[in-house]
Queue: 2 jobs
Job 1
Amino acid sequence: MIPITLNKFRELKWWRRIALASLSMALVTFTSCGEEEDVDIVPPGEVSEISIEPLHGGARFQYKLPGDEDLHYVEALYTNAQGAEVFKVASYYETSLEIDGFNDTLAHTATLYAVDRSRNRSEGVEVTFNPLVSHIHLVKESIWIEPALGGVQVHWQNEAAKQVFVYLYIEDGEQSEERILSSSSLDETFMVRGLDSIPYDFSVVVEDFNGNKTEKVFKQTLKPLFEEKLDKTDWSLVSSLSVDGNAWEGETVNFFDDVVDTKDSPADNSYFIINRDDNGGVLNFPLDIVIDMNKKVVVNRFTVWQRAYWYSTAENQGVSANYYYYQNENMRSFDLWASNDLDEWLLLGKFDIGDPKDEDGNIPSEKIQEAIDGHEFSLDEISDPFRYLKFSITAGYGSETNVYGSEITLFGIDDVAAR
C-alpha cells in the first residue's frame, strides 16, 4: 500500500477518504487474524498395548488409544498379497482395527499410526503377524454341486462372511463356459440354468475382493435333470374357483393359450380382463385363476407376461406408440399354489414384478425389454408333482376397476406319470 501523509489525506474528497480508511481497516484486520492463527503441527501420541488376533487372510489389532483430545482415527499401513501398499482406518471411537488381503500364512508387517484432526501422524508402531488360511480356500473346499432341472445348484459356506467370487467352469468335452457367482453370505446357494441333460465336468476358482485367487480345482461330473416347457394343450380353467376375466375382448383362458400379447397389433389381444362389475362390484384381492392341467407335473420356474397393448386412436388403427407395461390396470404381484384335489393347497411362492417407474413415470429400457421377454421367477425348491395350479393375483399397479394379464408358462417335468 502506498504511504500517505495526514495533510494529503485531508485534501482528498470525502468519499475517497472513506474508501481509503475502509481498505486500511480491512488490511489491518486480515493481518491481525493471520498473525493470531495457530497451526497445529504437534502429532498425537502413539497407540500402545497392541494385541494381535490372526484372521483368515488378515489380522485384527486391539490397542489403547493415546490421550490426545483432537485424535481423529487410527491407520494401519501395509502391503497386501498383490504387492499393493494399502491402508485401513478405524475412528477414535474404536479400539480395534482389521486388515485383510493376504493369501498365505507367512509373517507380514503393518504399521499403526494415530492421526489427529490436523492430519498430524504419530510415530509408527510396527507389528508382525501371521494370517490364518484365507477364507477363499475355505470357501473353495466347502463348495458342492448337485443336479437340478435344467442346470445345477452350487452351494458353499463362507464363515468369514466376506465378498467372494466363485468362477464355475463347465465343460462337456467339446465346449467350455464360465459362470461367475458372487456373494458375502454365510451360506449360499446359486441356481445355474441353461444346461442340457448331458454329463458336464465342473471346476471352480475362488477370488476375494483384493484379487487373491485359489488354484483351479475339479469338483465333480454331473448330469443336469431334464427340464422342459410344459405343454398347455390339455389345460382347462376351473371356472367355479376362478374370477371372471371375460370382459370385452379379454378371456380368462387367454392366460394359458400360448399367445403372448404384443403392442404392435390389436390382432393378438390375448389377455384376461378382470373387471370389478363382473366380480361383485369390487376387486376383492386375491383374484384367483385356477387351472386344471389334467396331468401331474413338476415345476421349478415359470414366466409371466403383462398386457402389452394400449389402445390409441382409430387414426392409428388402435396401435399405441407406448407399451402398457407397469401401468395401473396390469397385474403386479401374485402367489402360486399347487394342489392335487382342489381342497388342500401348497404355497409354491410369493412373487412381485415390481415397479421400475421413476418419479416422472419413466421406465428404463431394460425393464421394458424384461416385460417383452416375460418376467421369469424361480421356486425356492422344485415342487412335488401336482395337478392343479392356482394363480392368485394379490395386487395391480393401482386401478380399482380392472386387472390385466397376458400369459403364464411353466418349466419343469411334464406329465410325470407318463415317464
Job 2
Amino acid sequence: MNYLGIDFGTSGARAIVIDEQAQIVAQTRHPWTNSKNWVECWQRALWSLLEGISQELRSQIQAIAINGTSSTILLTDATGQPVDDPLLYNDGRGSSAIKDLSNFAPPHHTVLSATSSLAKLLWMQKLPTFTQARYLLHQADWLSFLLHGQLGISDYHNALKLGYDVENLQYPKWLEKLQIPVNLPQVLAPGTPISEIKPEIAVKFGFKRDCQVCAGTTDSIAAFLASGAKFPGEAVTSLGSTLVLKLLSRTRLENSQYGIYSHRLGDLWLTGGASNTGGAVLKKFFTNEELVKLSQEIDLSKNNELNYYPLLQSGERFPINDPLLEPKLEPRPNDDREFLYGLLTSMAKIEARGYELLQQLGADQLTHVYTAGGGAANDTWTTIRHKYLKVPVVASNNTEAAYGSAVLAMQGLKVENFHKNF
C-alpha cells in the first residue's frame, strides 16, 4: 500500500508517494507561473500532480492528504464554486478589520493579525460578491474538496488563525458573537479520513475506489512532520528566505506581541515564531556560488566580533517585535569572508535568542534542532549555530512538506483502521 502527500507551497506544488516503510517511491512537481487566476492555477496543478504519478502507483494509493499555505482562504457558493479571488497567505488587507476584531477577540490572540484567516474574512464581507458566498474554506480544504466532494471541512492546523480553539476543540463563544453569515468549516484532527475519493476522480486517474482523502494541514506543519522531530524539546529551524523557529513543547504559548503562536500536535504543542532575517539578506550581497565558496573559506577558529541585525528593510517580528527596527549591517569589512562570517554569526545569535525567548515564556527546554530550507546545506553555518544553540544541530530527515503530508495520510488511516478493529 502507498500514501500520497500533496504540498501547495509558496513556490509551487509538489506530490510525494511513500510506501508502508515511509520510503519515497515517487515524486512530482508543478512550479507556479505568474497567474491572475489562482483558482484555475491550483486546480490545474492538482490534476497535473496526479497525472505525474504512474498508473501502477495510483492504483495502490490508500490515502491522500493535502497541505496548503497558512491563512490562504476563499469563499465558495453552495456547490463549492469560488465566488471571488482567494486571499493569499501574505495578503495584508485584513488590517482594516483589526480594530473591530479587537472588540471581540481576547488580547494578543492569533487572529489579531492583518494576515489571519479571520481578519481576511471580515474584510471580504465588504465585497459585492459576498452575498453569493456560503462557505469559507482554506486552500487545503478546497483542494481536498475537489477530491472527496464534502463541503465545509477543515483541520485544526488551518483553522487556528480562523479563531478555532485548538485546546478545547471548538469554536469559541466570542467568535459566535461576530455573527458571520457564511458557514465556517467543521474542524477535524489533521489526518482524519474524511471520505472516499469521488468515483469520477477514481475512474479518471485509476485510484482505488476506497482510497481515503484525509484532513490536511499547513505547509509549515507538514515540513515539521517531515523533519523527524517528535519529542518535547526538539525543534525545527527553517533557513529559507526568512528564519522560522518551531519548538515542540508540552506547554502552549500564545503571544501576538512577539508573533508567537502554538499549533496542536496530538497531545503536544508546536510553538514558534518567524524572524525577518534569513537567506534573502544573504542573497542581497552574495550569489549562491559565492555563498558556497566564501563559507568554505571562513576560519572558524577565530571569533567574529561584528554585531549585525541583518534585515532587508525596517521591521522585525520575532524575537524582537518592532515594526521600526532598523537593519544593522555596518561596519562592512573589506574582506567578504569576514562580512559573511559576521552575517552568519548574527543570524545564529538571533536564532538562539528566539529559542531562549520561547523557553523563558514556558516552552520545554531545547534539546535538538533539525534544520530545513536551503541554509541546511551550509556546514559552516551549522557549526556556527551549534556554538550558540549549544545543542545538536542536524539536517531534517526530509525537507519536503509533501513528504510530511504523506506521513500524515498514512498515520491517519492507520489510526482509523485501529479504531475500526477495536
